[in-house]
Design goal:
Oligomer: single chain
Largest sheet: 8 strands, mixed
Structural class: alpha+beta
Strand order of the largest sheet: 7-6-10-2-1-14-17-16
Number of strands: 26
């Protein structure tokens, strides 16, 4: 029993010893001297308990030198280390630039500091810490900083003001606690021009002590020039603003000079399609877009001309080549010729259903590329070089902002290296394999996400200012690059003609056109213009025109099984409802779209006050 009690006592003593022997700041003392010149000399004595938990080689002290002001501007102060001691002896140290200041590492990289109590002294000089108000001068100082990771048993500060300034002339305030709190757990003692401040309670991690002293004017020399100081602190900000304004002005002038669309002409009904323009090309010219709908219009035009026959079946469509086409058929367009060569050159028929078919994809891509090669440069100006120049200027704006915010520290550069190298290699591989713009954009987005993740993990994430500016620049470039696109005079004239022909096709009331003597409606005319109506999205209105014509001729369209000889497997519904021609063409376009898209290879699974003023920062062990 006596042995058991002894063992339990030893365990309790060990636990108590371990609990007591945590790393902490036993005493933080700061001697602060304010000179008539405005310079501030500080000697900090930091007595710490070392247990090799966080403090192994020594401690570090962070000191902010950059303070944010209005509209992303900043004010900077000097920070000069004068002397560093440990236990009264000179101690090695080195500094590292932070995004908002300087970190002083005290200790030797290659030597562990001994356990137990260690006393560090840091002497440094700073300036531009005095606020020159209209009726007084104010010196506000964060003694400890609010970023220490250790408990502070006690904090004291001794502030010496310039000769001639009595503390009886000074209004003083002190705050303790977390940043933003207004607690005042302190006592103070005044002796002439010196005030000594003592914390009356222990400060927890990330708590600190701040004071403010308001002095009569005339005791501290104010030789600053606000304009020179502003440009000295914000030269990169000025460059950013000038570059940003230049970017906006450049885009506005570029749009005014080359991006404004030619004025549209007066649109009047045109009874014939513009000469030598296929339905698929007509859709591209009007919308500057080539996709499966252009391909659908080309297929139907081939059928109308008599080169192929279309048959609807349960899963899709069968295309059958007419064995001996008549010699007087209207010639195929270049895109239609590609369809015949790619799909029906060595076979008489081909089925297109919603199952992926590489030949259909290739044929559609070649047809659309052919249309673009024939009409893009003739009809449109994309002014890409102006867009590239604008994006280059935008990169400069972002670089100037990052330099202004001290973003490019050694840590951020190191953490950006991996994602940037990966993204560069991936983009090179994508372009080399000709995988296309979409894949390139996806790789770039992936690299950007990787960069943000790497920075976040390192504690050096992108600031909200950089993110907001990036989003703004992307939006500006996107809007103006879109606005810089414009039709050529030739393209605008062709668009007017297409709009006129579309107006004719979409006007169902015959009497509105009779005064202009349109061509007589016949089944042949209806079928000839049907692919154009499909390409322009007015197939239902055009079929309604034909239905009206049949009714005027005494034909009951509700019971009519009208179907052209080039189409079978279903009947054409001569109505303007969703069950009419738009339903047929939508189904056919959907089938072609599915057949031209390869299946995916992946699947988805089922926060005056404490912390204000100059000084500040914090520290820890390393």
């Amino acid at each position: 029993m006596a042995l058991l009690k002894t063992v339990l006592w030893l365990i309790i003593c060990l636990v108590a010893t371990e609990t007591y022997a945590d790393e902490r700041i036993k005493h933080f003392h700061s001697e602060i001297t304010v000179k008539t010149s405005g310079d501030i000399f500080v000697n900090e004595t930091i007595k710490v308990q070392v247990e090799h938990n966080n403090i192994k080689r020594g401690i570090y002290r962070d000191f902010p030198t950059l303070y944010r002001t209005a509209i992303l501007t900043k004010s900077t102060v000097d920070f000069e280390v004068i002397e560093v001691l440990r236990n009264g002896q000179t101690e090695p140290y080195h500094t590292q630039n932070l995004s908002n200041g300087v970190r002083v590492y005290i200790g030797d990289r290659n030597r562990m500091v001994s356990r137990g109590e260690q006393t560090y002294q840091i002497s440094y000089r700073t300036n531009r810490q005095i606020a020159f108000m209209d009726d007084h001068d104010r010196f506000a100082w964060n003694v400890t900083g609010n970023d220490w990771r250790f408990v502070m048993d006690s904090v004291t500060a001794e502030v010496s003001l310039p000769d001639g300034v009595s503390m009886a002339m000074v209004n003083s305030e002190v705050w303790t606690g977390f940043a933003g709190e207004t607690s005042a757990d302190y006592s103070s003692d005044v002796n002439g021009n010196v005030i000594t401040i003592n914390s009356t309670r222990m400060l927890h991690p990330y708590q600190g002590m701040t004071f403010s002293l308001e002095m009569p004017k005339g005791h501290i020399i104010n030789d600053s020039n606000w304009l020179l100081d502003f440009f000295s602190d914000n030269i990169m900000w000025v460059l950013m603003v000038v570059t940003l304004l230049s970017l906006l002005m450049f885009y506005i002038l570029a749009w005014h000079q080359v991006g404004r669309d030619p004025e549209a002409g007066v649109i009047v009904p045109l009874f014939y399609p513009p000469k030598d323009i296929s339905p698929a090309a007509m859709k591209y010219i009007l919308e500057e877009k080539a996709d499966h709908k252009n391909f659908t219009a080309a297929l139907i035009n081939l059928a109308v001309k008599g080169y192929i026959k279309l048959k609807k079946y349960s899963k899709g469509y069968e295309l059958t080549k007419v064995p001996n086409p008549e010699k007087n058929l209207r010639p195929m367009s270049s895109g239609e010729s590609i369809i015949m060569k790619r799909l029906l050159k060595h076979r008489n028929s081909v089925n297109i259903d919603k199952k992926y078919d590489a030949k259909v994809k290739t044929a559609m891509k070649m047809v659309n590329n052919k249309i673009k090669s024939e009409y893009k440069d003739k009809c449109f100006k994309d002014n890409k070089m102006l867009g590239y120049f604008g994006m280059g200027v935008s990169v400069l704006v972002l670089v100037f902002l990052m330099l202004h915010l001290n973003f490019f520290t050694s840590k951020t550069i190191v953490n950006l290296t991996v994602p940037l190298l990966f993204t560069g290699f991936a983009l090179f591989a994508v372009f080399k394999s000709r995988k296309g713009v979409v894949n390139s954009i996806m790789v770039f987005a992936h690299g950007l996400v990787m960069a943000i993740v790497f920075l976040a993990q390192s504690g050096g994430g992108l600031s909200k200012e950089i993110i907001i500016m990036s989003v703004f620049l992307v939006a500006v470039n996107g809007v103006f690059i879109y606005l810089l696109k414009s039709p050529t005079p030739f393209g605008r004239e062709l668009m007017d003609k297409i709009e006129g022909f579309k107006l004719y096709l979409s006007t169902a009331e015959q009497h509105r056109l009779d005064i202009m003597h349109p061509p007589e409606m016949t089944p042949e005319l209806f079928e000839e213009y049907l692919p154009y109506a499909i390409a322009l999205g007015v197939e239902n209105q055009w079929s309604q025109r034909f239905a009206n014509h049949l009714r005027s001729a005494g034909t009951d369209t509700s019971s009519s099984n009208y179907s052209p000889d080039w189409y079978s497997g279903g009947r054409f519904n001569l109505s303007s409802t969703s069950n009419g021609f738009s339903g047929i063409t939508s189904a056919m376009s959907s089938t072609i779209a599915s057949a031209s898209v390869p299946p995916s290879s992946s699947s988805s699974g089922g926060g005056g006050f404490s912390g204000g003023g100059g000084g500040g920062g914090g520290g820890g062990g390393w």
